[in-house]
Specification:
This protein is of the alpha/beta class and 295 residues long. It has twelve helices and five strands. It starts with 6 loop residues before the first helix and ends with a helix. It holds the Pfam family Lipase_GDSL.
Length: 295
C-alpha cells in the first residue's frame, strides 16, 4: 500500500505560521503589536522653566538702574544687578549670557522713581525685544512716599502687577519672569542712620515715609516706620501670590527682603540704595533663583 504524503499538512502549517506573523502575534498575546524596528522614543517635553535663557530684559526702579552706586544722585546702569557690564557686579545677564552675550542680548528698561503703576508701560517696551527672561524689581517707591497715607494701596498694587503679567503673557506666552521681593526698608533705615552724610542726602527727599526725621525714636516715628514696613510686607505677599499663578514666573521667596544689607552693601552717598557690592549680592540672589532646578 502506498504511504500517504504529509506535504499538504506541512504547507498548511507554514501558511498558518505566516498568517500569525502578519497579524503580529507574539508571546505577550495576539492583540499586542509587533515590535517595530523604526520605532523611536517620544521626545521629552519642553520644560516650563529654562535655566539658561538666551536673552534678558529688566524692568523696575532705581535699584535696577544702579542709582547712587557709582556717583551721587545719578543712575549707573553698568552696575545694575540685572544687566550691568561691571565685572565687580557680575550681573545676572553676564552670568547667564557671558559678557559678549549680555552686551548684545540684555536690555534695561527700569526707571528711577518708578512705581508699580509704571510697570505695564515698561513691560510694553520690553516685549518688543522678545526676551526669554524678564526681571522685575519694583515696589519700594510705592512705599517710599511723602507720608504713609500716600503709599500705594495694596489692591491697586495687585491690579497693576496682574495687568503687567497679563500684557506680558499676551505678547510673549513663553517668556519667563523673575520677580524680586521689595527690600526691607526699615533695615536700610537702621543701617544708614549711622552715617551723617547719608542722613544729609535723605533730607533731599529719599523715601521720606521711612527715612524722614531719621533720628526720631518717639512713638509717632516708630508707628510711621512700622506702618511703612507692614505695607512692604503686604506688597511682597502680592508679588508672591500673583507670580505663583503663572507657571513661568519665579519669585525669589523673599530673599531680597531677607538679605541683611550692611554698610558695605549700601551706597556710600545715600546709605540706602545698593552699592556696587550690594548690586553684586542682588545678582547672586537672582542667578540662584533663575538657575535653580526647582523654584
Amino acid at each position: 500500500m502506498r504511504k500517504r504524503s504529509h506535504r499538504p499538512r506541512v504547507v498548511l502549517a507554514l501558511a498558518v505560521a505566516a498568517a500569525l506573523g502578519v497579524a503580529g502575534c507574539d508571546a505577550v498575546g495576539g492583540d499586542s503589536p509587533a515590535p517595530s524596528a523604526t520605532a523611536r522614543p517620544s521626545p521629552k517635553p519642553t520644560p516650563l522653566w529654562d535655566r539658561s535663557p538666551s536673552s534678558v530684559a529688566a524692568v523696575g526702579d532705581s535699584i535696577t538702574r544702579g542709582f547712587d552706586a557709582c556717583e551721587v544722585l545719578s543712575d549707573c546702569p553698568e552696575a545694575s544687578w540685572a544687566t550691568g557690564a561691571s565685572p565687580e557686579v557680575d550681573s545676572l545677564a553676564v552670568r547667564l549670557l557671558g559678557r559678549a552675550g549680555a552686551a548684545e542680548r540684555s536690555w534695561n528698561y527700569a526707571v528711577t522713581g518708578a512705581r508699580m503703576a509704571d510697570l505695564p508701560g515698561q513691560i510694553a517696551q520690553a516685549v518688543r525685544r522678545k526676551p526669554q527672561l524678564v526681571t522685575v524689581m519694583v515696589g519700594a517707591n510705592d512705599a517710599c512716599r511723602a507720608t504713609p497715607a500716600a503709599m500705594t494701596p495694596v489692591p491697586e498694587f495687585r491690579a497693576d502687577f496682574e495687568d503687567s503679567l497679563r500684557s506680558l503673557r499676551k505678547a510673549l506666552p513663553k517668556a519667563q519672569v523673575f520677580v524680586a521681593s521689595v527690600p526691607n526698608l526699615k533695615r536700610l533705615w537702621s543701617e544708614g542712620r549711622t552715617s551723617p552724610m547719608g542722613k544729609q542726602i535723605w533730607q533731599l527727599g529719599i523715601c521720606p515715609s521711612m527715612l524722614g526725621d531719621a533720628d526720631a525714636l518717639d512713638s509717632a516715628a516708630n508707628l510711621r516706620r512700622s506702618t511703612v514696613q507692614k505695607r512692604v510686607e503686604d506688597y511682597n505677599k502680592v508679588l508672591k501670590e500673583v507670580c505663583a499663578k503663572d507657571e513661568r514666573c519665579r519669585y525669589d521667596g523673599g530673599a531680597v527682603y531677607d538679605y541683611r544689607f550692611g554698610t558695605t552693601q549700601l551706597s556710600r552717598w545715600d546709605y540706602f540704595h545698593p552699592s556696587v557690592n550690594g548690586q553684586a549680592r542682588l545678582a547672586e540672589i537672582a542667578y540662584r533663583t533663575v538657575t535653580a532646578e526647582r523654584p
